[in-house]
Amino acid sequence: MAAKEKLDMFCYQCSQTAQGTGCTLKGIYGKEATVARLQDNLLFALKGISAYLYHARELGYTDSEVDAFIENAFFSTLTNVNFDPQAFLKLALKAGEMNIKTMQLLKKAHIQAFGEPIPAQVRAGTVKGHGILVTGHDLHALDMLLKQVEGTDVFVYTHSEMLPRSRLPWT
Ligand code: SF4
Predict the structure, then answer these.
(1) From atom 6 of ligand 1, which residue's Cα is the shortest distance away?
(2) What values do phi and psi take at 165, rounded to 5?
(3) Using CA atoms, how far apart are residues 85 and 108, in angstroms rounded to an integer?
(4) Which residues lie with the beta carbon below 6 Å from any ligand 1 atom?
């Protein structure tokens, strides 16, 4: 049976970090590699949840449970007092649950604002004239832009994750 590999330690989450660059052996306050990885994972998840929650909020939708989870989870990484890996595993599982809840909230917000997605043909290629390329996931911003260029010779192009806008009735 292969020997269990030891995780590399690296953390630069706070101003106390070793040499001003990163704790590579152990945290100044004793944090171990496993907890550092779990905290990084949690922060990565929180960034994603926050981004989608922000889009839902732009359309007037919020969720107090998700808000409370984000505050609590951020706090768990900031205080440097809880180094229990089990606590961070529990938060990771809860983050998955909150992520689904947030995506459901955003879907509801999109449907209320723009209607149920329907099959539609996507126009490919470019047209001579001025153009704006839109990327990201913000259908609300795209909606406002489309309204502003209506009746002008400015064409709006999207790609990748913005393509779902082509399935919405208002396009
Ligand atoms: S949180 Fe701890 S391990 Fe991370 S940089 Fe600060 S002192 Fe180092």
Answers:
(1) 14
(2) -60, -25
(3) 35
(4) 11-14, 16-17, 23, 27-29, 31, 80
Output 80 or 134, whichever has higher pLDDT: 134
The stretch 80-100 carries a mean pLDDT of 93
Q: How many CA atoms lie within 13 A of 127 on its CB side?
A: 11
Q: C-alpha angle 85/91/97, rounded to 5°?
A: 145
Q: Give CA–CA dist 24/7, Å, rounded.
A: 11
Mean pLDDT of the chain: 87
Those residues whose C-beta lies under 8 Å from the C-beta of residue 140, and which sit 6 or more positions away, are 55, 58, 59, 113
Atom 2 of ligand 1 has which residue's CA nearest to it? 27
133 CA distance to ligand 1 middle (Å): 40
Between CA 86 and CA 164 the distance in angstroms is 38
Q: Give the model's pLDDT for residue 97.
A: 98
Residue whose CA is closest, atom 3 of ligand 1?
27
Atom of ligand 1 nearest to the CA of 31: 3
Within 10 angstroms of residue 80's Cβ, the number of other Cβ atoms is 15
